Amino acid sequence: MNVKLQELLRVIIPKEIRLFLWRIVPKIHIVNTYILTKPKLICNPQRIESKYSINEISQTDKEQLIKVYRYRGSNSYSEQILPRLLSNDWIGLAVFDNANGNIAYIAWIIIRSIRYFEEFGVHLKPRQFLLKDGFCVPEYRHQGLHTRMEQERINYCVRNNADTIFIQILNSNKKGIDSVINNGYVLYNQRKIIQWSLFGVYRELWSFLRSPFRKIVK
Asked: Residue 70: which region, alpha, beta or left (left: phi > 0; alpha: psi -120 to 50)?
């Protein structure tokens, strides 16, 4: 859609109606999966301000995590994300602002195969990892946190004996694609996804059409 038309619609259509339409209308996106083989430890990562620290998150960070995902505009994000804190499949890394204890950036690592990503043709074997869902709180953007976190995630995997790392990027995210290619990733596959917020659907399109009622836990 033309950018100027989008801006006009934001003015004409009230926010509540726009959010309602966003939820009820299914959308189709293209997602690219990239692969990095034989990753190496990054010894000189991007420098960030000394007020930040990077740590693995746990249940004690639950409230901070909820605050982060409120920026995404819906409580449904928290409902999908919080179970990861209790899962043995997901590892969360966060950049913390030591001045106030807030999470400035959150990103996730999948350490064993789960059905959701198997629909995308990604079946993790031992020593294989998948990076997913990096998000920077708006007020902390443009401070080098994204670059540093991408490097931290690679280093986490390398320190845990990774020989292969996967990452998924929406095909429309050109900056994100440039970033992963600069880190040595190459395209592994490309799939269509269906996003249908009203029913909490975010799945590989053809798998969804074959089994629309299958319960997929992310």
From this structure: alpha
Contact of 45 with 155, CB cutoff 8 Å: yes
DSSP state, residue 214: -
Q: Which residues contact 136 (CB under 8 A, 6 or more apart)?
A: 104, 105, 145, 146
Residue-averaged pLDDT of the chain: 86
Look up residue 191 and give its two tokens: 């799939």
pLDDT digits (tens, 9 = 90+) for 125-170: 999 999 998 899 999 999 999 999 999 999 999 999 999 999 999 9
Per-residue tokens: 40? 């190496």
Please report which helix (H) or strand (E) contains residue 201, including its range.
strand 201-204
Interhelix angle 145-159/174-182, rounded to 10 degrees, is 40
Residue at 91: amino acid letter: I
Name the token pair of 107.
């990103």
